Structure to design on (213 residues):
């Protein structure tokens, strides 16, 4: 079944707890937790303490580290309750070591790629990660439109994993809605991160169910 991960970045910051509860009750599978440092991406967002509080909602937290030197922050987010920790291939100088560090901390390890990054960055760490995150917008801002060329990239990542006989998940983040979702699923996505479209839906539960279908 397709997994849906609402992005906390699109929540109402004055009512974050209520928005987390709302998506949990609506049947979300994960809570996507965007960590931005103002350096790797322009904005600054959440830290480990916010992650610790979010993890009490019952949804497994998928921590997406959009930060330079991600190895410095892995233990902190693991201790804060993250179930998945994803680092960017562009930001991790020693990607293999980072992935080992994430797994050693007891979390599932993810590799994220910006839209212009080739899937070939995964080639020499196949088997060392549990999730490949394909960014279909440039990271750092919510509410962007999906870059169409990235749909083929999702298919390329899925093909690479299938060829290697691996069952790692393919996650997609950026511009996911009821129009783009089916195209991404057809290309091979297992998990969809939805932000503005999900939180802006009149009925969040129906939106999640429709996205899965």
């Amino acid at each position: 079944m397709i997994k849906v991960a609402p992005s906390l970045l699109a929540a109402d910051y004055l009512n974050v707890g209520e928005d987390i509860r709302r998506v949990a009750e609506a049947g979300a599978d994960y809570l996507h937790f965007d960590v931005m440092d103002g350096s790797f991406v322009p904005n600054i967002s959440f830290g480990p303490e916010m992650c610790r509080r979010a993890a009490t909602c019952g949804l497994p937290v998928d921590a997406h580290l959009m930060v330079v030197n991600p190895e410095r922050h892995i233990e902190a987010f693991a201790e804060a309750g993250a179930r998945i920790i994803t680092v960017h291939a562009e930001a991790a100088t020693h990607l293999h070591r980072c992935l080992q560090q994430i797994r050693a901390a007891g979390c599932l390890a993810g590799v994220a790629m910006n839209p212009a990054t080739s899937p070939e960055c995964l080639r020499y760490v196949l088997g060392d990660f549990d999730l490949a995150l394909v960014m279909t917008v440039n990271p750092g801002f919510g509410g962007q439109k999906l870059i169409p060329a990235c749909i083929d990239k999702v298919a390329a990542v899925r093909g690479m994993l299938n060829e290697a006989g691996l069952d790692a998940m393919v996650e997609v983040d950026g511009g996911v809605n009821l129009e783009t979702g089916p195209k991404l699923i057809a290309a091979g996505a297992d998990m969809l991160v939805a932000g503005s479209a999900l939180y802006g839906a009149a009925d969040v539960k129906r939106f999640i169910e429709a996205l899965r279908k």
The chain has one domain: 3-212. Residues 74 and 102 are 6 Å apart (CA to CA). The helical segments are 16-25, 48-54, 74-79, 95-104, 149-164, 181-187, 196-199, 204-212.
